[in-house]
Design goal:
Strand content of chain A: 15-25%
Number of strands of chain B: 8
CATH topology of the largest domain in chain A: D-Maltodextrin-Binding Protein, domain 2
Mean pLDDT of chain B: 86
CATH superfamily of the largest domain in chain A: Periplasmic binding protein-like II
CATH class of the largest domain in chain A: Alpha Beta
Oligomer: heterodimer
Distance between the termini of chain A: 49 Å
Largest sheet of chain A: 5 strands, mixed
Strand content of chain B: 5-15%
Largest interface: A-B, 62 and 53 residues
Order of helices and strands of chain A: HHEEEHEHEHEEEEHEHEHEEEHHHHHH
Order of helices and strands of chain B: HHHHHEEEEHHEEEEHHHHH
CATH topology of one domain in chain B: MetI-like fold
CATH architecture of one domain in chain B: Orthogonal Bundle
Chain lengths: ~350, ~400
């Protein structure tokens, strides 16, 4: 009964740890010697353990970048795999320092959960995966279908809205874990599997015959995915926020993992500010002057991480689309480092 | 100075001290009071501290969320439910689904358990070995494994809705069993009246024949007449006033069947897994209970000329039940609590829809889990109470 034990963790944490709310997360992390990062239980491209047990993915890279900025060592992380319905409780109870687990930014999650989103790592949307043999070309043809969905997600509510809005009937079968959901879809219990489009592509790879399944063209929702931190620690909030911004800005400035040593010697004023050879922006965050260098050296810039994990350099082959930089036709945009 | 006999302390104080137990005298009482005060203080500290911390982190607390719109759908609901109902309604939907699976599961577990126990005690070699094999196989495999086996391997292997197996207007597929739905018609009321009348007459007959048996020693077989009554009277009523129901036959429309009543495969898998698993334990409990009745009872019954079945039913089982009931109650409670495994196969029980979906949508872990715990506690206490009442009645009828 994992749920019940989580309940006690939360109750005890809330009941006894009177320091929890105001704690300086950065100091706690430093004292502990490692970052505690909440990830998914395995989603290719975002957070997934490889055959050696190393976690990789876009969400994982955020945590690696954080660890690099704090410890100058991207491996000083304890990854905590969480199901969709356990993730917020783990963050609230202090079990993890940051939740980087393909989580959709919504108003209610930003407020009532006692946590904040720090930015958008991936602009996603909800779609449908169906078997090709059903000969369905549009989501509007799904009247009376059985739909498999993972419980505790925004997906579940979007689904209800979409079918109601289009006056269609459907049957929902909700599972606690993503694997069970996909298994039920594969066994034929459902006609449709619905989730964020990026996940549909990732899960399709795991199916026996990926070519027998097709992602329908409709994207029925906005799903901006991003990391979350607890309320009440603005310094930590800033750090997590700016680690992502640093990766996006690095791509915009043309700083890559390969050329970072060269670029660090550059005379360009914006690069000097970022690398800390001019000013002390990193220290203002509570980190070190070379925070930017550490991040890029460890995980590369946003574009590199994207390509390596979900883009052209990965099995998923997802196009940049909305996640392209703002000056290249997308909407990824980070405030300037100055 | 004369020393008269000391007055005994007033009854009330005496009883109070006794109820508090422990050490005698006022020092013991003072200790008890102190202990209780410390407990209350600790509980207060925890609650107050939790409240303060939730407030500083601005995590919303309280039960206001129950009135909010849930916004998600559920695959099976005993009461009308749509996504625009409140979280309180979701709670009820989940609760009813949990109760449904528990009650039906307990019924089947008991029936299968008794049959297997009697089979294991049977003098027939083959029957007893099969029953023994069943118990050893089922109780030694993890329940979650069995649940997934039934759901994915057995029910998942059924054909899709378009190739479903059709029997008498019912369709079996991997979407579950769809049966024609009975729709009440004008003839329903007379048929119900006729059925009630038949039941009353049947009870009257039973009373009459039992008196005859006890007073005059004449045994009359009545069950053929009873069955005739139970079927005949409603049938006559239906012929006179018209059919009580009309059938709504399911038709394949689009992806699924529309019309009819559907039993979802999640419910079936959960019921089969829970009842066969619990039945293996119940079988052993029943066997132990029957073996605890002295062999002489059986021999005495047989030598009176009763059949083996009658001896079991009239002599052995009633005595065995006294041994069986307490551990049987445990199994009932286990079944109810194990029903929360439903979450792994997508059956919308309380744990899945309320402590799962509603929890992660609202983030109010403390309130929701407290409510869920309360429900399981209440269900368990009610089950215990019912079983205790039955045990008490049984004890009285055995004259114990």
């Amino acid at each position: 009964m994992k749920r019940v034990s989580l309940f006690f963790t939360l109750a005890v944490a809330a009941g006894f740890a009177s320091q929890a709310a105001t704690a300086e997360t950065l100091k706690t992390v430093k004292d502990r010697g490692q970052l505690s990062c909440g990830v998914s239980t395995g989603l290719p491209g975002f957070s997934n353990p490889d055959d050696k047990g190393n976690w990789t993915g876009l969400d994982v890279d955020i945590c690696r970048a954080l660890a690099a900025a704090i410890f100058n060592d991207p491996s000083k992380i304890k990854f905590v795999p969480l199901s969709a319905k356990d993730r917020f409780t783990a963050l609230q109870s202090g079990e993890i320092d940051v939740l980087s687990r393909n989580t959709t930014w919504t108003l209610s999650r930003d407020t009532s959960l006692g946590a904040n989103f720090t930015g958008v790592t991936y602009y996603d949307g909800q779609g449908f995966l169906v078997k090709k043999s059903l000969k369905v070309n549009s989501a509007l043809e799904l009247n009376s279908a059985s739909v498999c969905v993972q419980t505790g997600t925004t997906t579940e509510q979007n689904l209800a809205d979409y079918f109601k809005g289009n006056n269609m009937k459907y049957e929902v079968i909700a599972f606690a874990g993503q694997d069970e959901t996909v298994k039920a879809y594969e066994s034929g219990r459902c006609d449709v599997f619905t989730s964020d489009v990026s996940q549909l592509y990732a899960e399709r790879l795991k199916l026996a015959n990926p070519a027998d399944h097709v992602v329908l063209p409709e994207v029925i929702s906005k799903e901006p995915l991003g990391p979350m931190v607890r309320h009440g620690d603005d310094q930590w909030f800033d750090i997590v926020k700016w680690v992502l911004f640093a990766m996006v800005d690095a791509e915009e400035m043309g700083v890559t993992q390969a050329n970072v040593d060269e670029m660090a010697k550059s005379d360009k004023p914006d690069l000097k500010r970022a690398f800390g050879t001019d000013g002390n922006l990193g220290e203002q965050l509570g980190l070190t002057k070379d925070w930017f260098y550490r991040i890029i050296k460890a995980v590369g810039n946003y574009g590199e991480s994207f390509d390596r994990n979900v883009g052209t350099g990965s099995k998923l082959q997802i196009a940049r689309g909305l996640n392209q930089l703002w000056n290249k036709g997308g909407i990824q945009y980070a405030p300037p480092i100055r | 100075m004369t020393t008269g006999p000391r007055k005994p302390p007033p009854q009330f104080v005496f009883r109070l001290k006794r109820a508090l137990g422990g050490r005698s005298g006022w020092s013991g009482l003072a200790l008890q009071v102190l202990f209780a005060a410390v407990l209350i203080w600790i509980a207060y500290e925890i609650v107050a501290n939790a409240r303060a911390n939730l407030e500083t982190q601005r995590i919303i607390s309280g039960f206001g969320f129950l009135r909010n719109n849930a916004g998600f759908d559920v695959s099976q609901s005993l009461v009308p439910y749509t996504g625009s109902d409140s979280y309180a309604w979701v709670f009820l939907v989940g609760l009813l689904n949990t109760i449904l699976v528990s009650v039906i599961g307990i019924f089947f577990a008991t029936v299968i358990g008794f049959i297997v126990a009697l089979g294991r005690l049977s003098p027939n070699w083959l029957v007893s070995r099969i029953a023994g094999g069943y118990v050893e196989l089922i109780r030694n495999l993890p329940l979650l494994f069995q649940l997934l086996f039934w759901y994915l391997a057995v029910l998942g292997a059924l054909p899709g809705p378009r190739q479903s197996i059709a029997v008498f207007g019912s369709y079996l597929s991997n979407r579950g069993l769809v049966i024609p739905r009975l729709i009440p018609e004008a003839g329903l009321a007379p048929v119900v009246v006729a059925l009630v009348a038949a039941i009353v007459v049947a009870f009257g007959l039973r009373y009459f024949t039992r008196r005859l048996l006890f007073e005059k020693g004449r045994a009359i077989t009545i069950w053929p007449y009873v069955i005739g009554l139970l079927i005949g009277l409603p049938l006559i009523a239906a012929l006179m006033f018209g059919a009580p129901f009309s059938l709504e036959v399911p038709v394949l429309k689009g992806f699924n069947f529309s019309g009819g009543t559907r039993v979802i495969p999640e419910l079936v898998a959960l019921l089969v897994a829970l009842s066969t698993y619990t039945a293996a334990f119940i079988a052993e409990i029943v066997r132990a209970g029957i073996l605890s009745v002295h062999r002489g009872q059986m021999e005495a019954g047989l030598s009176l000329g009763l059949s083996r079945g009658s001896v079991l039913r009239l002599i052995v089982v009633p005595q065995a039940l006294r041994v069986i009931l307490p551990p049987l109650t445990n199994q009932y409670l286990n079944l109810t609590k194990n029903s929360s495994l439903a979450v792994s196969i997508g059956y919308p029980d309380l744990f899945s829809v309320f402590a799962g979906t509603a929890l992660s949508q609202t983030g109010q872990a403390i309130e929701i889990l407290a409510m869920t715990m309360g429900v399981y506690l209440l269900l368990s206490l009610v089950t215990s109470a019912v079983m205790s009442f039955y045990g008490w009645r049984l004890g009285r009828s055995l004259g114990a």
